[in-house]
Write a structure and sequence with these properties.
By secondary structure, the chain is of the alpha/beta class. 43% of the residues lie in helices and 16% in strands. The protein has two domains: 164 residues, Rossmann fold; 150 residues, Rossmann fold (3-Layer(aba) Sandwich).
Length: 334
């Protein structure tokens, strides 16, 4: 599978619009130009100072033709959306004036622009740090129905001719939640399965809850949350024939068919896993970096999931192509 072409084709068919809050950053400007030039998406750049955006683009050699620059103005946000936001902030101890001042910032304005249905996705984090992006997302967008915990996934793309994994897989959560409980793991799995189905429509999602034990081969209290999370997630998707869930599974049983036949012979997931749910952030972060650095996988992410609308956080070390691809993935999620 040419995963890059697959993602870009799906995004182009979505005919969406993405807002990029960090509108004077050279990487963001180049990504905006690429998205419009390649017909992947329409782009909105919010600006406190339109000339500053134009000057930054000129300096970077970026052609702004076809890119919409909007001056940050509360009048562009739906009144009801503003009212809900201010009320929520006041209940948390903020004054209404302080809440309204937040809407003058590119980050909060962009989130509210998205919530006002003026665009389809918001991609940021090249300049803003993760804490700022997640805080703004929760305060403006909120979580999707049935999910209380936001999380992230990495799209792990295997190198050509990999001996074990042939197609892209998802790793979660590798970037947000340090030590989720069983309900949190269930939310992570729920969101990741939904992300997989949007990225790979028509394909069966096989989700494995990873552990150091396979189907009771070890006994320890730390296994309880993994086993409970797998049970809860199975119940949630029991009527979906395109979703299989199992756990607890060791990594080798999850990916190797010969080992799966010995360790979990009755499992529909073992040996066929394409969604890997790690028990905590230690394991997830170590796992994706080992796959990337030792296994030669390309790790695209972390992609934020579990929010009511598509918002993603970038690494501050990202390049223009990263922003371009994450924007495409977000538009598939709309």
């Amino acid at each position: 599978m040419d995963i890059r072409k697959h993602i870009l084709d799906l995004a182009a068919k979505a005919k969406g619009k993405v807002i990029l809050p960090e509108s004077t950053d050279v990487r963001v400007l180049n990504a905006a130009q690429m998205l419009v030039k390649d017909g992947i998406a329409s782009v909105v750049l919010p600006a406190l100072d339109v000339k500053a955006v134009e000057d930054a683009a000129a300096q970077a050699g970026v052609n702004l033709s076809g890119i919409e620059i909007v001056r940050i103005d509360r009048a562009l946000i739906d009144d009801k959306v503003i009212e809900e936001f201010v009320s929520a902030r006041v209940r948390k101890g903020m004054s209404s004036e302080e809440a309204l001042d937040l809407l003058k910032t590119p980050l909060y304005f962009s989130m509210m622009y998205l919530k006002s249905k003026k665009c389809d996705a918001c991609v940021c984090g090249a300049v803003y740090d993760t804490a700022d992006v997640l805080r703004a997302s929760l305060q403006t967008i909120g979580t999707m129905e049935g999910i209380k915990l936001i999380s992230s996934f990495f799209l792990m793309i295997p190198p050509e001719n990999h001996k074990v994994i042939k197609d892209p897989v998802l790793f979660a959560d590798c970037g947000v939640n340090p030590d989720p409980l069983s309900l949190g793991l269930k939310d992570i799995a729920n969101a990741t399965i939904q992300s997989y189905k949007k990225l790979f429509p028509g394909q069966t999602a096989n989700a494995a809850f990873l552990s150091f034990s396979t189907k009771g081969s070890s006994k320890h209290k730390v296994l309880g949350k993994v086993i409970e999370a797998a049970k809860l997630t199975k119940e949630q998707f029991e009527n979906d024939k395109n979703v299989n869930i199992d756990g607890e599974l060791q990594f080798d049983a999850a990916v190797m068919e010969n080992i799966a036949k010995r360790k979990a012979p009755d499992s529909k997931v073992a040996g066929k896993t394409n969604i890997f749910i790690f028990p905590d952030l230690n394991a997830g972060n170590i796992g994706y970096k080992m796959a990337e650095r030792l296994g030669g996988f390309q790790a695209l992410g972390p992609i934020i999931q579990g929010l009511a609308l598509p918002v993603s956080d970038l690494s501050r070390g990202c390049n223009a192509d990263d922003i371009y691809m994450v924007s495409a993935i977000m538009l598939i999620q709309k």
